[in-house]
Amino acid sequence: NKHAYAFLILQMALWDFDAMQLFLTVKAWTYHYNIDINVDWKTARQWCQKNYTDMVAIQNHAEVEHLNQLLPFNKAYYWIGIRKIEGYWTWIGTNKRLDPEAANWAENEPNNKGSGQDCVEIYIKRSKETAKWNDEKCSKKKATVCYLASCSKESCSEHAECVETIGSYKCQCLPGFIGPRFVQCRPIENPQQGFVTCDGDFGVFNFNSSCQFHCGTGFKLEGAQRLRCLASGHWDNALPSCQAVQCLPITDAPGGWSMNCTHPLSIHSFNSSCEFKCEEGFELKGSNTTWCDQTGHWTHKPPTCQGTAHLQNNPH
């Protein structure tokens, strides 16, 4: 008896049976099927698009179980709205690739037996592997199951995706958003001996903003030059620092001089200076001081010390 079916769907508003076709009018995602005639996959989709939204797009295992309870047995089983596109199983109604964790393939499926099995059927109320999926040739004749979407452009904010659920829908925040707010990363301050410049389409220190680091004269950046705020609320790299440029150590050399160095930042680094002196009886030839400059080089080479007697015999 066609009036003997009883299916529970949330927020149901109207039931109406007509020639083995079920029409449900509700203010949420609803399922609709046609077992009056079995058709190929393309024709099944055209029927769904004409009368509803599209062929059913299954999002999780709870939905699989719901469909298995809802739909009557059909010997040829039912088409669902997934097919192989460019080598990937894709939900054609939502244009999303199949999440492997949400897949419900039968054992050893999909196997592309005989090649060209680019469409998918669901084994509704089958005695073995019930509600499992099987890849099949799109030309085969099967029943049709569709969905009517409840999501609209006004359902969620511009920063959220409307996700259909059984008998309802939910607004799922896009990456980088928490409710109406942007995800924020920890504010960044200027590094010592440097400065930082930040910008972003959603505001400084918010999701997808970036900060670029610069160092002052005589300092070089250690770490990433640019950081980006991720959807997780963390920067994609550790904070860099500005380190003083290093000069090579001045090594002792025969010549009779001694030196006294000062290192205001770190040893042998930018702004370090050394003063040279000769021992008694020797005269310094060259500069008596040298500085570590911003390029990492000493401004003067170490001097030499010559004995005064030698200078008297060789005035030039």
UniProtKB/TrEMBL annotation:
<keyword id="KW-0472">Membrane</keyword>
<keyword id="KW-0677">Repeat</keyword>
<feature type="domain" description="EGF-like">
    <location>
        <begin position="147"/>
        <end position="183"/>
    </location>
</feature>
<feature type="domain" description="Sushi">
    <location>
        <begin position="245"/>
        <end position="307"/>
    </location>
</feature>
<feature type="domain" description="C-type lectin">
    <location>
        <begin position="26"/>
        <end position="147"/>
    </location>
</feature>
<keyword id="KW-1015">Disulfide bond</keyword>
<keyword id="KW-0245">EGF-like domain</keyword>
<dbReference type="GO" id="GO:0030246">
    <property type="term" value="F:carbohydrate binding"/>
</dbReference>
<dbReference type="GO" id="GO:0005509">
    <property type="term" value="F:calcium ion binding"/>
</dbReference>
<protein>
    <submittedName>
        <fullName>Selectin P</fullName>
    </submittedName>
</protein>
<dbReference type="GO" id="GO:0007155">
    <property type="term" value="P:cell adhesion"/>
</dbReference>
<dbReference type="InterPro" id="IPR000742">
    <property type="entry name" value="EGF"/>
</dbReference>
<keyword id="KW-0430">Lectin</keyword>
<dbReference type="InterPro" id="IPR024731">
    <property type="entry name" value="NELL2-like_EGF"/>
</dbReference>
<dbReference type="GO" id="GO:0043025">
    <property type="term" value="C:neuronal cell body"/>
</dbReference>
<dbReference type="GO" id="GO:0005783">
    <property type="term" value="C:endoplasmic reticulum"/>
</dbReference>
<keyword id="KW-0130">Cell adhesion</keyword>
<keyword id="KW-0325">Glycoprotein</keyword>
<keyword id="KW-0732">Signal</keyword>
<feature type="domain" description="Sushi">
    <location>
        <begin position="183"/>
        <end position="244"/>
    </location>
</feature>
<dbReference type="InterPro" id="IPR016187">
    <property type="entry name" value="CTDL_fold"/>
</dbReference>
<feature type="disulfide bond">
    <location>
        <begin position="278"/>
        <end position="305"/>
    </location>
</feature>
<keyword id="KW-0812">Transmembrane</keyword>
<dbReference type="GO" id="GO:0005886">
    <property type="term" value="C:plasma membrane"/>
</dbReference>
<dbReference type="InterPro" id="IPR001304">
    <property type="entry name" value="C-type_lectin-like"/>
</dbReference>
<keyword id="KW-0479">Metal-binding</keyword>
<dbReference type="InterPro" id="IPR051277">
    <property type="entry name" value="SEZ6_CSMD_C4BPB_Regulators"/>
</dbReference>
<feature type="signal peptide">
    <location>
        <begin position="1"/>
        <end position="19"/>
    </location>
</feature>
<keyword id="KW-0106">Calcium</keyword>
<dbReference type="Pfam" id="PF00084">
    <property type="entry name" value="Sushi"/>
</dbReference>
<dbReference type="InterPro" id="IPR018378">
    <property type="entry name" value="C-type_lectin_CS"/>
</dbReference>
<keyword id="KW-1003">Cell membrane</keyword>
<dbReference type="GO" id="GO:0060074">
    <property type="term" value="P:synapse maturation"/>
</dbReference>
<dbReference type="GO" id="GO:0090036">
    <property type="term" value="P:regulation of protein kinase C signaling"/>
</dbReference>
<dbReference type="InterPro" id="IPR002396">
    <property type="entry name" value="Selectin_superfamily"/>
</dbReference>
<keyword id="KW-0768">Sushi</keyword>
<feature type="disulfide bond">
    <location>
        <begin position="215"/>
        <end position="242"/>
    </location>
</feature>
<dbReference type="InterPro" id="IPR000436">
    <property type="entry name" value="Sushi_SCR_CCP_dom"/>
</dbReference>
<dbReference type="Pfam" id="PF00059">
    <property type="entry name" value="Lectin_C"/>
</dbReference>
<keyword id="KW-1133">Transmembrane helix</keyword>
<dbReference type="InterPro" id="IPR035976">
    <property type="entry name" value="Sushi/SCR/CCP_sf"/>
</dbReference>
<dbReference type="Pfam" id="PF12947">
    <property type="entry name" value="EGF_3"/>
</dbReference>
